[in-house]
Write a structure and sequence with these properties.
It is a single chain. The protein is 28% helix and 16% strand. It is built from 2 helices and 4 strands, in the order H-E-E-E-H-E. The chain is α/β, with parallel strands linked by helices. 16% of the residues are buried. The strands form 2 sheets. Strands 1-2 form a two-stranded parallel ribbon. The protein has a two-stranded parallel sheet with strand order 3-4.
């Protein structure tokens, strides 16, 4: 599960190259669960869904929260609101996993991860 379509498509391209079947979930189509394959989704698309296992890649400080989210911030209250939205989105993504959750990053982890 990724924050952006670009990251989701990046993973899809690599799985395709490795000949691993992946199903890209989009907002305009229902998931046909009778088709085998790894489900790829954005965090927004995954709302309301459940999976046995979920992987959330790209959770480095450089990638999440996305810098673009804060470009239009006008004051501290607005920044706090955007941060709360991003934390909520990450929480929703992580809680889609019924049994297994894998969160990964390279370099420094996102400040949104409690990594004590």
């Amino acid at each position: 599960m990724c924050y952006s379509h670009q990251k989701r498509n990046f993973i899809n391209d690599h799985l395709s190259y490795a000949k691993i079947i992946a199903i890209v979930l989009t907002s305009d189509k229902a998931d046909v669960q009778s088709i085998d394959g790894i489900r790829l989704s954005t965090m927004h698309r995954a709302k309301g869904l459940e999976f046995k296992a979920v992987a959330i890649p790209f959770m480095s400080a450089a990638d999440f929260p996305p810098k673009a989210v804060f470009k239009s911030v006008v004051d501290d209250a607005d920044r706090e609101d955007k941060e709360a939205q991003m934390r909520s989105l990450l929480h929703v993504a992580a809680t889609r996993a019924k049994a297994f959750l894998r969160v990964s990053w390279s370099g420094q982890p996102s400040s949104f991860l409690n990594h004590d």
